[in-house]
Design a protein that fits this description.
The chain is about 15% helix and about 25% strand. The protein has helices spanning about 5-10, 45-60, 110-115, 135-140, 215-220; strands spanning about 65, 70-75, 85-90, 100-105, 125-130, 145-150, 155-165, 170-180, 185, 190, 195-200, 205, 215, 220-225, 235, 250, 260-270. The protein has an eight-stranded mixed β-barrel with strand order 2-4-3-14-15-11-7-17. The protein has a three-stranded antiparallel sheet with strand order 10-9-16, with no helix packed on it. Strands 5-6 form a two-stranded antiparallel ribbon.
């Protein structure tokens, strides 16, 4: 419980989100019964502190289930035709022309706090290592690369997307996919390799030496990447064996709904076989 005071201070400093209409959410399964947050037996102060953290996160449009190790957010399909660099961004700052999903006005620092609350540990980003000695001109022209790639590694989350589609006859189809299956490698003719997205946790940056520090994921709006970027400004990175190449990833239009379609995204510490029941935000005081 030593994380709670710092998380409360962080969340108290975040701007409040406007209430969102219930009609904008997607319920793939019947709602789950809200679970009381775990706390040491006989420690009401810890229980109250944890409940307050969950309420603060819910006010930031983040629903957290500590018992099941889940974070749930409501997002939408961002685009289905253009090359991808990111899986998820937040508007208005994120690179929406290069992301599969977007969420409006989600505070990245709050999402980071939710991930830390579930106990995730910072991993290693993918790295580009120069070859020593470098290839000769002839080798380079023949396709020999002047670097090797060390893949991202470490703790993180499995990510799932679920949504509903209504057929012409009114029948509702419920979709549930690993997000990797929604991204195509057009060079290798396969989907993105399955695995945990590695937690990087973003970092603090200064636009110039006299500026105040900014949380990079909030300043840029980019949350989850599909390819390796040298600067860890986002929260999570994928780790496909070809994640060094930014030109080969495209949306899987065979599975995806249209642009703007509401989608429920689940960040899970453990693999899910079926859609998790909807996470219920704790009631306010």
């Amino acid at each position: 419980m030593h994380r709670l005071p710092a998380l409360l201070i962080l969340l108290a400093a975040l701007p409040a989100c406007e209430p969102q209409p219930e009609g904008g959410t997607v319920a793939v399964e019947p709602p789950a019964v809200a679970q009381d947050p775990p706390a040491p037996a006989g420690d009401p102060s810890a229980e109250a502190a944890m409940a307050e953290v969950l309420r603060q996160l819910a006010s930031q449009k983040l629903r957290v289930d500590l018992g099941r190790g889940l974070i749930e957010i409501d997002a939408e399909v961002c685009q289905i035709y253009e090359p991808l660099e990111y899986l998820l961004i937040t508007q208005p700052r994120g690179k929406d022309h290069e992301s599969l999903f977007l969420v409006n006005d989600l505070n990245a620092a709050a999402l980071n706090a939710a991930m830390l609350l579930l106990g995730v540990e910072k991993g290693l980003n993918g790295r580009f290592v120069a070859v020593d000695p470098p290839p000769t001109r002839e080798e380079y022209q023949a396709g020999v690369r002047d670097y090797t790639v060390e893949p991202a590694d470490g703790d993180g989350f499995y990510i799932y997307a679920s949504w509903e589609e209504t057929r012409a006859d009114g029948v509702i189809d419920r979709r549930f996919h690993r997000v990797e299956d929604l991204v195509l490698n057009v060079r290798s003719e396969r989907t993105y390799e399955r695995g945990k997205f590695v937690y990087l946790g973003s970092r603090f940056i200064k636009p110039h030496k006299d500026a105040e520090e900014l949380f990079a994921a909030d300043a840029e709006g980019n949350l989850v990447s599909l390819i390796y970027f040298p600067y860890e400004n986002h929260l999570l990175t994928g780790k496909d064996s070809e994640a060094d190449n930014q030109y080969i990833w495209f949306p899987n239009t065979y599975l995806l709904p249209p642009i703007g379609h509401p989608v429920r995204l689940l960040f899970s510490l453990e693999p899910l076989e079926t859609p998790a029941p909807r996470v219920i935000a704790p009631a306010g005081r």
